[in-house]
Amino acid sequence: MHINFVQNASFGGITKLFTKKYTTDPDQISEKQLKYPNAYAADVVGSLPGGWLKNVPYQDRQAFAYEIFDILGKHANLAREHFDCIQELSMESELRKAGLAVKKVSKIDAGSYGTVAGITVEENGKNKNYVYKVYRAADNNSTKHGALPEIAFAAYLNNHLSNHNFAKFYFGDITSKYMVCEQLPYISRNITQRKPVEYLGFISSDNHPANLLAGRNVDYGGFKPANELAANVQLRLKCLQIRKIPLNEREQYWENLYAKAMKTQEKDLFYMLSIGIVDLPYESRLEKMEVLFNSMEHLNPQSLRHLAIGLSSIMSFMNTHTPSLKILEPYYKTLHGLRIKQVDLNITRALHHMKISFALKMLEEMDYLVQKDK
């Protein structure tokens, strides 16, 4: 079976499922895997880094990739059998023998969900560092930790949000349960503003400071769709249309879309309008947000829900792109006043930027979220 993702270091195989749709449904995944009798296509998500393949003749790349997958899969299984201990020297020797220009494999750390090693590879005369994360045998789908939830999220995120805030994901194996991604430096002088996962409608239950290096996230665990709209790929693609328009024309595009939405009351348009604020020129964002909030009283229940979910999902972004956080307080209160659970869950993720007295008052009012779940 020919597997394009191995030959040209692009996506294919089971990866097609994860890049098009965010899912951790075992039945849905198993059904898709059955279509790929080749184990590599059925289990491996993503692709080898381009630098690993550069010096490998095109006709030998498939065999080379298979051997790399076998070595990493074997050592993932061995690590779980030996109390999360990765056999660095043995793995380094085997990878080098397979033809990978490995300089060093070294233990980094062990955490709650697995153990991590660093793989240093020589590429174009320079050393490049990668992280090899081995997961424990069991996935915890409810908390979105483990090989399947994290690889699924990593693949979906990389395909739908290029300028994200995470270490770059390359590939992982959902059966052997490991992942390979870039290793970030501990200090960076060039931290660029990147879009948060809230832009895609995802929230995190695991915002631990240890997960951040150089202003970016190194852990894909704990992230899940905040609402039923986040995993709607067709709606997501519609939201991206505004990015194809020159920046100086986006405001007019947004206004035309708003006029259409108010006329048709099409619920998806209101979600697109709210998400689209992020891609508008800086000086017009607050103005357009005010327009949307003022329109709420004229919307039908479904359109209002879509609008509120969209607005609440960009509040974290607005926190860092607004002259004064005080300006945003009425918007938080309005969103909470709608008493939509998904909306309140979204804004709790953004409140950590706000003045502590305001955030505590809001969280106290949203205590029903906790009480209801108990």
What would a concise description of this structure say?
This protein has 18 helices and ten strands.
Descriptive tags:
374 residues; alpha+beta; six-stranded antiparallel β-sheet; two-stranded antiparallel sheet; 18 helices; 14% strand; elongated; disordered N terminus; disordered C terminus
Write up what this structure looks like.
The chain is of the alpha+beta class and 374 residues long. It contains 18 helices and ten strands. Strands 1-5-6-4-3-2 form a six-stranded antiparallel β-sheet, with helices on both faces. The longest helix has 21 residues, at 61-81. The protein is elongated, with a radius of gyration of 22 Å. The protein starts with a helix and ends with a helix. Mean pLDDT is 80; it is low at 1-11, 187-191 and 370-374.
Lay out the secondary structure.
Layout: H1 4-8, H2 15-20, H3 26-33, H4 39-43, E1 44-46, H5 50-53, H6 61-81, H7 88-98, E2 102-111, E3 114-123, E4 126-135, H8 147-160, E5 169-173, E6 178-182, E7 202-204, E8 212-213, E9 216-217, E10 223-225, H9 233-240, H10 247-264, H11 267-276, H12 285-295, H13 301-313, H14 315-319, H15 329-337, H16 341-350, H17 356-365, H18 367-373
Antiparallel strand pairs: 1-5, 2-3, 3-4, 4-6, 5-6, 7-10, 8-9
Helix pairs in contact: 6-7, 9-11, 10-11, 11-13, 13-16
